Fold each of these.
Amino acid sequence: MADIGAHFIEIGLMDRLATKDTAIHRLDPRAKLLTTLVFVATVVSFGKYEVSALLSFFVYPIALIARGDIPARYILKKIILVAPFAILVGVFNPFLDREPLLTIGDWSIAGGWISLLSILVRFILTVGAALILLACTGINGVCLALEKLGVPRVFTAQLLFMYRYLFVIMEEGMRMVRAKRCRSFSKQDTGMKAFGHMLGHLLLRSLDRAQRIHSAMSCRGFDGHIPSMKQLRLTSGDVAFVAGWSGLFIIMRLYNISQLLGSFITEVIS
Amino acid sequence: MSHHIIEAEDLHYKYPDGTSAIQGVSFRITHGESVAIVGENGAGKSTLLLHLNGYLLPTEGALRIGDYSLTKETLNEVHRTVGMVFQDPDDQLFMPTVFEDVAFGPMNLGFPADEIKKRVYDALETVGMLHLKDRPPFKLSAGEKRAVAIATVLSMSPNILVMDEPSSHLDPKTRRKLIALLGTFKHTKIIATHDLDMAVDLCERTLIIHKGKIAADGPTRELMQDEELLEQCSLEKPLKLQCCSLCGKVSV
Amino acid sequence: MHMADALISPAVGGTMWVASAGLIGYCSKKIRTVFDDRRIPLMGVLGAFVFAAQMINFSIPGTGSSGHLGGGMLLAVLLGPHAAFLVISSVLVVQALFFADGGLLALGCNMFNLGFFPCFIAYPLVFRKIVGDKPTPVRLCIGCTAAAIIGLQLGAFGVVMETVFSDISELPFRTFALVMQPIHLAIGIVEGLVTASVVAFVWKARPEVLSAVSQSKPVGSYSIKRILIILLAVAALTGSMLSWFASSYPDGLEWAMFQTSGSEELEAPEHGIHASLASIQGSTAFLPDYGFASPESEAEEELPGQWPAIDAGTTVSGLIGGLLTLSIAVLTGYILRPRKVTP
């Protein structure tokens, strides 16, 4: 249950990263969102045994981490934390797919190992891209971009509400857990019944809060529509960002840069 | 200047579950007055406040706020007249940034963009929180949250300010600052509180609510000296009116 | 059971994205028509509640392991299916962005698995049928448990299908399903019981919260319409999936014809998909002298001249090139890093 506190800090840190002011942070959130989507789509479109061509895609996250002043180690740590599921599903590949696919001298490597490696590389790339998008755009920016790209206001508005009250309700939950722990002595696990009651209490408090928020909103003229004043203006820099990166992704999708470079080097050496 | 007046006439309110929270309350608060509403827990303060912003409508009796009597039809006007500062600023600060939060009211009132901006800047300036305008509200300290919550109301330029426990959860220095800030407002003020010292500082008049009725209505200093009355209503003489235990003097 | 980007193909991810985006649009519209301005703060706060609740663990009796609330069914019970779908979706968005749970492309899959099934299948067809118009504590409890179990089973099946269709993981359909379904039966039972106990608590403490939802609309009058909508959605979904499959299948067939001599591999269904995907791969591979070719290319070696045999040379050059690109990328990052200006 210490993790609830850890999550808390985590979200806060991601938020803080988003308040930095770098060239990447200043880009239109739509530009970053679209570029990230193109990135993810091109990465996952590779065949399942592809590894070398994927490596060139690291240039995007690395460039953003550098320009956006994002701590690379932190992003890596987060990726590793969530890796188990991908590993779990991919880890059987080497056992199920034993056809040798690659030989170096006397060694042969089964296709399954390659596809597992490919899954891991994809995983790092796609998850990293999502985290970086958030770290240099912020949840408000992402929501604004979604909205301007046509996602219904009802959805984005309640998403922002959820995000806003995440902190408040998590803190309430955390206080409850702490108070319970103080009185449970050696019997530390929460039984299902106590758990149900605790959640029930938290739920009732949340419902009360929703009611209070609503009354605070209606005091200020809320009539079901949340007004938005924020305007976005796409600059030529934003367009260049999307076009440039997307173009690069497509080139890297079509031509295996690593392979080309590798053959060039080996030829030069030999 | 009739729009600065609040007048309650034999107000009754019964919750749907049958609890009778207010039983015949009458008072009249006029322009520029600063009134404290005090009373023990469960006396009916909060229920009364919920009437002042139109969240609850009286089951019996009438409430006049400014030029309007409180009904479903006049809610919008009432919301414009009365600025309500809630007890928990987290309930009041729901937008992604401080700026948007303070702009929420004016935007709903349909002001043009530059007018909205001006109002937001003015309101934040008044409470001294302009430097926080781009921050997300949940990152603020308790005192900052409180000040911003007040700004969200000021930006609608209400005539009457209603506040629920404005000094709760604040450290002594922040509390002191808040009291000083509230002292500069020229609005009609209604403050529900347990902080009787603040009531002495800010409000010349006090309503004591006890079991859904008004137990006393009069000048704050006089009521706060009436130990029998205070005892009866589960209240206690404010510290600054008590004799100093060291030197035996009253501070004010 | 969040799907990850790394495990799905663009076709599956894209289809599910379209399906989920459509559902978001539909639900948003639906909510606007029956608008109650309390809804937005309520949805937001309940989303935050589910988020917080997911972080509190409890111990599952007799197993020594712990579980937490998923919350999909609870939201459907408290908010009704349309609002609940939107809330679940936004929980998933935040999880994907902040905790890298799932991924951006996989969001569509996750919204569908964790949102559509509980809200639009389990809730109307199981929960409402059991609870009926006049909820009683027993009915609520049975309804919640049954609906949560069925919702999770369907969701788990969604994960299996999406994974198999994507063919990134090597897990065969049957094995994967045999692992996923029982695990999620256990999770579903726990989830159901927790949901039931929370609902029971609320029912005792504040019955009006639940009765407001259960009385919002009579079950009979709109369930038929809703089922029709669901069927249409499912049909559209499977249709688009199948058409994508069919469009690539001819190539697969072609490939299979070459193999008819002495190939028993085609019996298993996953090989069909496998083969078709491999042929897409073949057609999109612009550089035939790939170091890391697909195993199918080995089979195709039989056709002389079309595919070069795997040769150690290209492998080595691939490795060197890969390492080099990676180091160039890192170096670029280092160069791009803004210099700290000393004041």
Note: Chain C touches chain A through 118 residues (CB under 8 Å).
Amino acid sequence: MNAEIEIQLIASVVAAACALPGVFLVLRRMALMSDAISHAILVGIVLAFFVTKNIASPFLIIAAAFTGVITVVLVELLNRTRLVKEDAAIGLVFPVLFSIGVILIARYAGNVHLDTDAVLLGELAFAPFNRIVISGYDLGPQALYVMSAVLLVNILFIALFYKELKLATFDSGLAAALGFSPVFIHYTLMSLVSITTVGAFEAVGSILVVALMIAPPATAYLLTDSLMWMLGLSVSIGVISGISGYWLARFMDASIAGCMATMTGIFFILGLLFAPERGMVALARRHARNRWEFALWTLAVHLFNHENLPESATENRVDHLHEHVGWDREYAQKVLTHAKQRDIVEQENGRLYLTRTGRQMAKRALVK
Amino acid sequence: MNLMQILKGLMFDYTLRTVALGSGILGIVSGALGVYAVLRKQSLLGDAMSHAALPGIAIAFILTGSKAPLVLILGAAAAGWVGTLFIMAVLNKTRIKDDSALGIVLSVFFGFGLVLLTFIQKMPKATQAGLDNFLFGQAATLMERDVIIMGLLGAAVLIIMMVFWKEFKLLSFDSEFGSSLGFPIKKLDFILTGLLVVAIVLGLQTVGVVLMSAMIVAPAASARQWTDKLGLMVALSAVFGALAGMSGAIISSVTAHLPTGPTIVLCISFVVAVSMTLAPNRGLLWRWFRERRNNRRLRLEAVLLDLGMLAEQHEDLSHGHPASVLNTMSMGQGGVERSLEELERRGLVQNINEDEWALTQGGVKEINRILEHREVKKV
């Protein structure tokens, strides 16, 4: 395997592993917890590094994941004092922890590869250099194994607790009443987010983890109503963002992680614009269609009201529409053309007559 | 460096004076504007805005090739604005909630900014050195012209805030009432958000995009603990922001390997911790004392009333009642002995012998007073 393919593989696995817990963060309105956790775990990594003196030690991952959970607990404790609102609580906790982490790095760890750039950006390009070699056999990059393990844990958790997660997410009251502890689900999910963040941290850095966790699920949320589909779509969008991000970075000679985040944003914007039901284009088209439909109904009802009455000779004329219905001449003409196409009215010497379809339409509209 | 040296430096050292002034200004502006963000539950909007500013800085540099602060500030403000408008659009047009919208803007804009920064790094002959400072801030790079610009922009922001004082107050506390009174709430929201963008952008060079949000949230959250009045809160928040900004920036510029942003954040977080513990009425320590006092008072009253009920069954007021009975009546509340001793010290009960207790005349009066008080409260 060459380095190019390995990087893309790692990017895909990272993106998939992030997207899975991300779906539940988005649905449970806790997206910013990932922001808090991804910043805060830096302290855990640095402190564990000081203890073990080994950047590759698995102890680092455990310590960082633990810090992530502590962050969640701290936010909740602060929240419970009722001295600040929840958003402020998040905004107070993670800057402190992150600051401590950055200062520790700047002062004491300057010469290891734990520098602040690595913290923010990750070093995906270097990931293939760090390999697992057992008795002379090269088994591949370590990051690939770590992230695959994280991905597997995420898949297992979601598969095993799918029903519970779904219930706790959409109706936590019912979940509690049925005996599934929402607290248990909450903390397990937060632990997963922490573990995933730590694993992805090395590859994509602390802030871009947030992009991979939130943007693909949010895009999927625009596309579907089914949780199953949302999970699948999120993973797919994440993986596609990862691979296309890699090629964008190659093309621009820029940061891979940054490009991956940019791609997740581009896919989100595409979803925002072109999602079949909820996209802005679909919304605008539906809006326009409704407007035409409404104009046709208005025309039909107007003609129907005056049909076969003495005043119909003056009322049911083209040039009268703008006076009575309040349309300007141009618009009235457009509606009329449209109505003729749809076989709703017929025109004879400037007078308008409803066809049979037109009359039925007017009656239906009036009954409604 | 000791304190005297720093004080001397503040007066005569150009760098130190500039840094202190600049960080002070940023603290005042972000502290004052942060109050509105915190009251309107938009604490994390600042986080998204400051991250979103990064690509603006990079684009401004790519387009103009200049590192003049005004150019970069304009770029940052424009990008921060775009990010905010994007968030508003997503919230208005889709069912995506604010947390996800903030998270996406924050991380994607920032990622794009990093792409541009790495891209600039590799541009031929580009001197991008210095743009990195926008990540964690570098107070020592502040120059006099930067501080002048910060001062002017900051003053403009504060003046606009004063001009719209009443309107912003209404917007923060009851915007629906405001709009029913005919205030253009949407436009006011627009202006206030714009001011917040400027406040954030002012701090980027000193604190950095990653941690600037703390300068919005923390001073206001501290000030909130000390007062319920908006005017006082804004003033206090500005003072806290200025203090933390100045001390953090000075500490970091006189110490090697100490990035400014994180240092300032630790300073302001210290202020938050002190405020949340010590502030009268709301502070945790205060609350703890109040709860303890209340609990003790209630325990004393309960024992006294129990003894009163026992005394009612005897003509003789000085008839002794064993503490064990009172203990049973307290239903396992415990601490009955201690309460009796305290009551004795206050002259409300007397120890008849060894372990038996009786009310005094004063105790009877006290019971009547308590019952009357409770009766009044009930009514």
Note: The two ends of chain A are 67 Å apart (CA to CA).
